[in-house]
């Protein structure tokens, strides 16, 4: 059974404004409340099986509601003994996260896990002033710092900066030793090389810090910690949450809506190297950007496209949706940066789907303009895409905006996603361009039937843990496998007591 009509209420919880006024002391109660609300929400929908790749038809009214949960609900609470962060830390861990909003979220989650593994104190992660967005707002400008530290208090100690050390009456700042972790470094690198330097110097600084910890880790408790960071601790600041909710409220006042991340931007297009559809002037711009930012590579448009390496054009996105049965009354929120090529590419899409919105068309206020520059703009788009009824990314390459959202929507209740299989669709589009129009819609539908629409599904490499955290971060009340059993609610109070006990012990040894 699919459920409709609960989006709003559910959205309130993730938005956090339902908890407005609750002070930090009550955050455990809040966490429990959230978990209870989620279990309430999910207990009613359990049917069908996990591998629903055997779908025979695509029904629009089903796409407008959440996917089948098959009795699974999100849960990232520990399921085995989880010791509080040690009272004596091995040193300070500083990281600098580069990339856009989503790459940073992933990096922050990795940093927390790295600190946990090393029994280190984490210094609030530094966010790179993004070269593309020219943004310098940092962690404080985007995320709710107090909520972050509080939510993770059972996991790691977090400080805002490395404190000054007082030795023989002299104040001295610990200088963090700079290290460059290998890409996707295994846990053992952190417990050997990195830990050694940390103990030697008191602090280490890992930079750049993106994809510096292996994603597949054979320890579900570690993976659940990543989910606690990504889906619970990393909450945007109240102004961003408020603005996103007001946009969603305005959109939903007229009924359900779809969000699309139209990745048809200059950086993506030049990375993909799909130039031939552009004018000579446009090609010059893309090629220049490519030379300046990416390693040289021989890129032949027809070859790239045939294997699904080119981002879908807005028109192709429109045609896929039409083939699935969405008509011109469908309301679509477009999350995107600057679309490359302008109206020439947007007009065909607009004629298929005239009811298009973006954050500035929904809300014209000063406040919006103030709050949607740089990373904060990405954050608003992130929230609207998270809360929308359907989400469709058009290019889910590595470390893209879409990847984290796919994972977050899965965690947030198996919310429908439409993930076009570009490689399988490419020959159908090529046929259409060559005049073979008949059977186009059926062919598209046949490809789409084999894709996942946001149900629980097995992660198959190269799918990222951040795109699909099933099954580690999900549980069942009546599981076939005992490891999937939902933890009892008292786990949080056990952890709370242990943390308190440790604090008391530390106080008494001090005394
Ligand atoms: C971290 O602390 C735990 C609990 O005290 C201990 O079992 C583990 O070996 C420590 N790990 C490191 C790398 O210090
Ligand atoms: C939607 O399509 C119908 C025909 O299928 C047409 O009559 C109508 O004007 C279109 N609506 C808009 C807003 O373009
Ligand atoms: C948002 O939509 C409006 C109206 O359709 C358009 O003029 C504007 O360029 C769009 N803004 C962005 C950032 O895409
Ligand atoms: C331990 O001492 C600190 C101050 O030194 C105090 O803030 C904290 O509440 C004490 N913790 C407990 C559990 O008594």
UniProtKB/TrEMBL annotation:
It is found in: Membrane. The chain crosses the membrane at residues 21-42. Keywords: Carbohydrate metabolism, Fucose metabolism, Glycoprotein, Glycosyltransferase, Membrane, Signal-anchor, Transferase, Transmembrane, Transmembrane helix. It comes from the Eukaryota. CDD domains: O-FucT_plant (cd11299). GO terms for molecular function: glycosyltransferase activity. InterPro entries: FucosylTrfase_pln, GDP-Fuc_O-FucTrfase. It is a single-pass type II membrane protein. GO terms for cellular component: endosome; membrane; trans-Golgi network. Pathway: Glycan metabolism. GO terms for biological process: fucose metabolic process. Residues 69-89 are annotated as: Disordered. Belongs to the glycosyltransferase GT106 family. This is O-fucosyltransferase family protein.
């Amino acid at each position: 059974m699919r459920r409709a009509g609960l989006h709003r209420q559910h959205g309130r919880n993730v938005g956090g404004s339902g908890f407005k006024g609750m002070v930090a002391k009550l955050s455990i109660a809040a966490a429990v409340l959230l978990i209870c609300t989620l279990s309430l929400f999910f207990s009613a929908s359990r049917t069908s099986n996990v591998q629903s790749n055997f779908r025979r038809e695509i029904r629009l009214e089903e796409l407008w509601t959440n996917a089948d949960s098959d009795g699974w609900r999100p849960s990232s609470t520990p399921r085995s003994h989880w010791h509080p962060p040690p009272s004596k830390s091995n040193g300070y861990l500083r990281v600098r996260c580069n990339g856009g909003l989503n790459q940073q979220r992933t990096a922050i989650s990795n940093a927390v896990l790295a600190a946990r593994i090393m029994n280190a104190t984490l210094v609030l992660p530094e966010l790179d002033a993004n070269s593309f967005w020219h943004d310098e707002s940092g962690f404080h400008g985007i995320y709710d710092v107090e909520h972050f530290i509080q939510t993770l208090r059972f996991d790691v100690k977090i400080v805002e900066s490395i404190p000054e050390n007082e030795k023989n009456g002299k104040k001295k700042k610990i200088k963090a030793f700079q290290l460059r972790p290998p890409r996707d470094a295994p846990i053992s690198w952190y417990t050997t090389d990195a830990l050694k330097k940390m103990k030697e110097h008191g602090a280490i600084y890992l930079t750049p810090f993106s994809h510096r910890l292996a994603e597949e880790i054979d320890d579900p408790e570690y993976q659940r910690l990543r989910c606690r960071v990504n889906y619970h601790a990393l909450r945007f600041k109240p102004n961003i949450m408020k603005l996103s909710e007001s946009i969603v409220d305005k959109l939903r006042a007229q009924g359900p809506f779809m969000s699309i991340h139209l990745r048809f931007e200059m950086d993506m297009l030049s990375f993909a190297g799909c130039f031939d559809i552009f004018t000579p002037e446009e090609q010059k711009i893309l090629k220049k950007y490519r030379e300046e930012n990416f390693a040289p590579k021989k890129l032949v448009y027809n070859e790239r496209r045939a294997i699904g390496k080119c981002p879908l054009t807005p028109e192709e996105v429109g045609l896929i949706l039409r083939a699935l049965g969405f008509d011109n009354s469908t309301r679509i929120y477009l999350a995107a940066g600057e679309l490359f090529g302008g109206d020439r590419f947007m007009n065909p899409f607009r004629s298929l789907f005239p009811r298009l919105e973006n954050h500035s068309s929904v809300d014209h206020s000063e406040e919006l303009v103030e709050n949607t520059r740089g990373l904060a703009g990405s954050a608003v788009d992130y929230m609207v895409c998270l809360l929308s009824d359907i989400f469709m990314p058009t290019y889910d390459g590595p470390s893209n905006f879409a990847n984290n959202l796919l994972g977050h929507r899965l965690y947030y209740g198996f919310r429908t996603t439409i993930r076009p299989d570009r490689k399988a669709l490419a020959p159908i589009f090529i046929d259409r361009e060559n005049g073979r129009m008949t059977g186009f819609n059926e062919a598209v539908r046949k490809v789409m039937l084999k894709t996942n629409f946001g149900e629980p599904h097995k992660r198959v490499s190269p799918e990222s843990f951040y795109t699909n955290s099933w099954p580690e971060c999900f549980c069942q009340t009546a599981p076939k496998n005992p490891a999937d059993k939902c933890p009892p609610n008292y786990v949080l109070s056990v952890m709370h007591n242990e943390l308190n006990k440790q604090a008391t012990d530390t106080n008494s040894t001090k005394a």
